[in-house]
Design a protein that fits this description.
About 25% of the residues are buried. The radius of gyration is 15 Å and the shape is globular. By secondary structure, it is of the alpha+beta class. Helix content is about 20%, strand content about 45%.
Length: about 140
C-alpha cells in the first residue's frame, strides 16, 4: 500500500501499489489498466461551519432521493449513486466529514460493464476509502 496525504493535511488514505496518485487538485486515483473508472476526492476546510451528517442529509436527499447514511472508516457519511448519462456513466458519491473538514469523494465508472465487474471495482474503491483519516498523521 502507498500512503497519500493531501495538501493542507486535510485527509490521508492508503491506495494499493498498482494505483497511481495524481497530486493536482482535485485529487485523482487511478489504477493502471483500469480505464473504466476514476476515484476523485475534494477536501474543504471551514472556519465557521461544523459538518454534521444529520444536518446535511435533508439537503442531499432533496437532490438525490437514493442517499443514505453509511460508515466510511471511522466517520459517518452520506452515500448515493446516480446515472449521469443513463446506461453510460454511473457515479458513486460519498460526503464524509467531521468538525470543520468535509470530504467529497466520487467514483465515476463506465456503466456498460457487467454487474460483477462493476461490483468488484466498487468494492476495491470502498476498501481504499476505509483507510481514510481526516487530518494527516
Amino acid at each position: 500500500m502507498k500512503s497519500f496525504c493531501s495538501k493542507a493535511d486535510l485527509f490521508s488514505l492508503n491506495v494499493p501499489e498498482e494505483w497511481t496518485i495524481h497530486t493536482e487538485y482535485p485529487y485523482k486515483f487511478t489504477k493502471e489498466g483500469f480505464i473504466e473508472g476514476i476515484l476523485q476526492i475534494s477536501a474543504f476546510h471551514s472556519k465557521n461551519i461544523e459538518f454534521n451528517v444529520s444536518n446535511e442529509l435533508p439537503k442531499v436527499l432533496s437532490k438525490h432521493p437514493s442517499a443514505y447514511i453509511a460508515k466510511i472508516s471511522d466517520y459517518d457519511s452520506i452515500q448515493y449513486t446516480e446515472n449521469h448519462i443513463p446506461e453510460v456513466v454511473l457515479m458513486h458519491s460519498w460526503i464524509i466529514g467531521q468538525g470543520n473538514i468535509k470530504i467529497f469523494c466520487t467514483f465515476t465508472v463506465n456503466a456498460n460493464q457487467q454487474q460483477q465487474k462493476l461490483d468488484a471495482h466498487l468494492l476495491e474503491v470502498f476498501d481504499i476509502l476505509q483507510t481514510l483519516k481526516l487530518a494527516c498523521p
